[in-house]
Cytochrome B
Amino acid sequence: MNNLDLSSRTTSADEKRLRNSTATYGLIAVLFHWTIALLFIAQLALGYLMSGDDVDPALQFNLFQYHKSIGFVVLALAIPRVIWSMLSTKPHPPAGTGRVAHIGARLAHAALLFLTVAVPLAGWAVVSTSPLQIPSYVFDIVVIPGLPLEISDASEALWTDVHETLAYLAAAIVLLHVAAAVWHHVIRKDVTLKRMMPLVSRRKSAK
Ligand code: HEM
Ligand code: HEM
């Protein structure tokens, strides 16, 4: 009986560490955040570098394949992450955060959640509409079929514009987002960045 009680207490403490509370982000949100953030920033850099005019064509081909592979991984992680985020409690802003700053942060988070799905989807549309029809592999493991869209130069040009515009819009929001995180940590010295860190104890701050 005692054992049963103990195991149910452990489960509930573990659950608290995994899920968000009004005080902090849970481990699942933290792992989603940093995995997607690192891959997304790498993709912005890779996309920019591989699209340069003076890149060797053989290297450029390989970089495109890596860009597509990593992009599909981001998409596969971003969809469950959006659902998890929508179902989760949102940690309250740290004491002293103004209303405008709070609304601004919420809008930026919503935009970033949307863009981590929309940017790779638009990239997928680029390769699906390209008359070249180069197969898209995820690291030579699985082939991803094209989206059911019109295949033509005009359609490819349109989706290329959408992909680029959304990617650079995301880059601008990420810059503001990172600046805000640094400002909270260095100037305001509050818990904003710490509660998104994987090694900070969640048990104490979880409510
Ligand atoms: C995490 C998601 C992604 C990000 C952040 C991203 C970002 C970028 C960026 C910044 C560029 C350079 C735009 C330019 O300056 O010309 C680019 C180009 C490109 N991306 Fe992505 N991308 C992502 C996912 C994907 C996916 C999933 C695919 C395809 C399956 C893809 C296909 C392409 C292609 C084909 C180009 C070259 C377009 C051109 O002809 O200029 N991207 N991407
Ligand atoms: C070095 C880069 C980054 C840092 C330091 C950082 C920091 C943070 C911090 C401290 C929070 C919690 C904010 C709060 O409680 O109000 C947060 C949340 C969030 N961040 Fe970042 N971030 C970075 C990169 C990114 C990137 C690249 C993306 C997406 C492309 C992103 C998307 C989000 C989202 C959507 C949230 C809301 C929480 C959630 O739904 O999981 N972040 N970030």
Observations:
- The two ends are 26 Å apart (CA to CA).
